[in-house]
Amino acid sequence: MAVMIVFDFDKTILDCDSDNWVADGLGFTKSFEELTSTMPWNLAMDIVLGKMHSQGITIEDIADCLRKAPLIPHIASTIKTAHSLGCELRIVSDANTFFIETILKHHDLLDCFSEINTNPSIIDNQGRLRIFPCHDLTSPNCISNLDSCPPNMCKGQIIERIKANAEEGKKKIIYLGDGKGDYCPMLRLKKEYFVMPRKDYPVWELICCNPSKIKAKICEWSVGEELERTLLNLVRLINFFEDHKADFNNADVVLSTALDCKFQLVALSPHKAFALPPVPL
């Protein structure tokens, strides 16, 4: 399989923010809002989890809350289908290991992912959940020198490593995200790759300010059904071009094809075209 799909987590797989979901669901909304107004989000969440522990909230209470968090509609079937087609799936998220793994396990999705890049978490000997920054808070982290990367994580740094791995395996990358932190990695992807920003979310707004900065092909999405159709069509088309040894980089019609599952021809050159089978969704 010639495709590597990289997902953000909050508001891309999960249809909410996992930190907010836990803070709201366990009665710590006010504390969390006060802390995030004065310190990095990641550190604020660790402090809130400490407050929860001191008030008798257990790890299982947190896990129960997480299991109730809603997924983006159609995302579970999309992930399972992409995995069954042989795509390599990874996560790059500013959530944390415990939140992501708990939710993915609950929906039988964890084994679909080969790698989860996020803020590490541990349960200490007192049973308290701790969250740590992915990157060192004391030094500048953004590889692109952007304000959009939070101090604890530059997804651009992570995508550079993933990109090197993908190129070694001759795989095309599709990157999906919604937040400001997804802008840096999207900037670092080449023209033969794809980015799928969630329309009318912060990363989409940043892209709209200067679309020419993004070298990768842009395929927007708004709702889960649109994400599913577009992503699986892209997977299918990338593999189609690969199988036919076609010049993928110059075949811009791939975009219109991917966004319209009724369109059944891909023009590989002025003299050659191939019929594609219907997309199973």
UniProtKB/TrEMBL annotation:
The keyword tRNA processing does not apply. Pfam families: Put_Phosphatase (PF06888). InterPro entries: HAD-like_sf (IPR036412), HAD_hydro_PyrdxlP_Pase-like (IPR006384), HAD_sf (IPR023214), Pase_PHOSPHO-typ (IPR016965). Signal peptide: none annotated. Transmembrane segments: none annotated. It comes from Stephania cephalantha. Substrate binds at D19, D94. SUPFAM superfamilies: HAD-like (SSF56784). It comes from the Eukaryota. Mg(2+) binds at D8, D10, D178. Its cofactor is Mg(2+). This is Uncharacterized protein.
